[in-house]
Write a structure and sequence with these properties.
The protein has 294 residues and is α+β, with helices and mostly antiparallel strands. Among the domains are: 85 residues, Immunoglobulins (Immunoglobulin-like, Sandwich); 89 residues, Immunoglobulin-like (Sandwich). Helix content is 18%, strand content 33%. The radius of gyration is 47 Å and the shape is elongated.
Length: 294
């Protein structure tokens, strides 16, 4: 045997299991359950959204009979902080939670161009990828000096470039560019950071130059090595030929000169063949003409 018991609903109970399902830049999806199971009538909820940065409040009303309620809060600001309170319309006990919306993205393609006495920071406009960003809001630029371990606020601009002067030699800097913060340094965009060394080159360009130098070295070094080897082999060949010629000439001179007679010795010409018949015969050298042997 069994019996069905229906409890008397208590409308003073708070909504259950309030949580965030999805958070974007300008919206947040929240979800909760009714104070008790299977409501038998429509229930009116009050959703209060408190902007913790602007110090403003908005109240939305949600009427439903569902046990599980999903609601989207719209018209929020990127990078904002909000306190959400959900309760029944009769001002029952409340459930609350905090929401932080997604900040604006970091500027793309941040790069550095080095001039004679200053550098220029360049980046792409955030309006190209962020429909919620207005160029009139502008950007703010910060600089971190790793040697001094200090961060400086350089200023803000509504342009897509910024000039930086008075950099110290031997210092390494990190530059940060982001959408300008609102309301006392809050609701800021994500920062884009770029390193800059004392030589006036950014990290990206330094890496690029290093890569290019490595590639060039990988090509030049083997070529120089081959050239040195070729020169060495050529020198050895030339030296060997020189030594052979010198030895041959010395041997020829020794075999055709008589130090006893003091004159050169040549054959009579009978064994030279037909081709040398017309060649004049060398009988010797005069005693008063010195013979030079290389």
């Amino acid at each position: 045997d069994y019996v069905v018991v229906k409890m008397i609903p208590d409308n003073r109970l708070p909504p259950r299991h309030l949580h965030s399902v999805l958070t974007g830049k300008t919206f947040a999806v929240i979800k909760w359950e009714s104070p008790y199971d299977s409501p038998d009538q429509d229930m009116l909820y009050a959703v209060a959204v408190k902007d913790l940065v602007r110090k403003t409040d908005k109240i939305y009303k949600v009427k439903t009979r569902n046990s599980t309620v999903e609601y989207t809060i719209k018209k929020l600001e990127p990078g904002g902080k909000y306190h959400v309170i959900v309760q029944l319309g009769n001002m029952s006990k409340e459930s609350s939670m905090k929401i932080n919306t997604v900040p604006l993205s970091a500027p793309d393609a941040l790069k550095i161009i080095t001039e004679n006495d200053h550098i220029l920071l360049f980046w792409k406009s955030l309006a190209l990828k962020e429909s919620n960003f207005n160029e009139s809001r502008g950007y703010e630029i910060h600089m971190f000096d790793s040697l001094m371990n200090s961060t400086a606020y350089l200023g803000n601009t509504t342009e897509n470039f910024f000039r930086v002067s008075n950099l110290k030699i031997g210092h390494n800097y990190s530059f940060t560019v982001r959408a300008r913060c609102l309301y006392g340094g809050q609701m800021c965009g994500e920062p884009a950071t770029l390193l800059y060394d004392e030589l006036g080159t950014s990290e990206d360009s330094s890496a690029s130059k290093t890569g290019k130098s490595t590639d060039v070295a990988a090509i030049v070094v083997p070529i120089l090595f081959l050239l040195l080897v070729t020169l060495g082999v050529g020198f050895v060949v030339l030296y060997t030929r020189h030594r052979r010629l010198q030895s041959s000439f010395t041997a020829f001179a020794n075999s055709h000169y008589s130090s006893r007679l003091g004159s050169a010795i040549f054959s009579s010409g009978d064994d030279l063949g037909d081709e040398d018949d017309e060649a004049p015969m060398i009988t010797g050298f005069s005693d008063d003409v010195p013979m030079v042997i290389a």
